[in-house]
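queue> pop job 88
queue> type: inverse folding (structure -> sequence)
queue> payload:
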């Protein structure tokens, strides 16, 4: 458990000097960021090629956007860390990356739980009203 001790140290995360990552960490981070990017592309292709209801497609597009964004910014951070750029390769950018992904996912969950039922109800009530309205003859 001593290897987890630096993770709770303030200076570990907010030091401006660039420290090279171990090769195993580099492989894990690179794989994680590429996986995010590939997941975003796969979800976009799934939405385009399959038939989902309107709201499920919107949610999947939002998730794909978050995955793509996370992959691109993660790879950018990884490159800057690999090149040991002093400010932009710092570790605190990874914390910002994680927090921003969590915020984006919470916003998507809030959309799914709060707004989608409201939009579905509104759409259903419009359909109920429209069935009594006269239509143009075809």
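queue> result:
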């Amino acid at each position: 458990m001593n290897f987890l001790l630096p993770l709770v140290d303030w200076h570990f995360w907010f030091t401006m000097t660039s420290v090279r990552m171990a090769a195993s960490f580099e492989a894990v981070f690179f794989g994680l960021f590429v996986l995010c990017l590939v997941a975003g592309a796969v979800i976009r292709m799934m939405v385009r090629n399959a038939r989902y209801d309107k709201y499920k497609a919107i949610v999947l597009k939002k998730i794909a956007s978050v995955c793509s964004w996370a992959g691109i910014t993660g790879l950018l951070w990884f490159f800057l860390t690999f090149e040991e750029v002093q400010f932009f390769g710092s570790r605190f950018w990874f914390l910002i990356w994680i927090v921003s992904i969590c915020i984006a996912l919470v916003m998507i969950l809030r959309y799914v739980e709060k707004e989608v039922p409201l939009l579905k109800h509104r759409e259903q009530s419009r359909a109920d009203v429209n069935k009594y309205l006269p239509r143009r003859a075809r």
